[in-house]
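Just wondering, can you check both lines?
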Amino acid sequence: MRSFNAFLSDKKAAFSLVEVLLAVFIIGVGVIPVLSLFLSGTQTVEKGSVVLEASIVSQNILDRARSDSFIWKTVPITINIPDEKYPEFRIPEFFKKKYQASATLTIEEAPDHTILGTGARETNLLQLTVILKWIELGMPKEYRLLTYRANTNSLNLKTSAKF
């Protein structure tokens, strides 16, 4: 059996404890910033996907509201979505449940729009607004989408805007 001193006197290639600790430190210094960038990039992508989903939900509500059969019969109106009287306006279940989402659709005569030369309110131009609200990471968020719709079936299309 070999003695402990004989074992220590062998010149075998090995790393000392200081070399191992130094290597771990250098690798740690390089890996931590990379992991940090990866995590922040993942959070940014997740936030972007929520905003994209909110814009798609809002656009779907707006597209359904723009139909001639609905829009010109209901002016002015404000609908809190979901509403049993208007099942065509809905928020996808997964978005509604995950983010406690709700929306409001408002259809009204476009404010500050008048008939050219008369100053009378323009009744052939409507403003449609969708406001989607949700909670993300405990913080309330809101996405607002606004568009205009003209009654092209009217012969009296002399609109102008005051800005």
In short: The first strand starts at residue 77 and ends at 81. The beta strands are 77-81, 102-109, 113-115, 125-136, 139-150, 159-161. The CA atoms of residues 7 and 66 lie 87 Å apart.
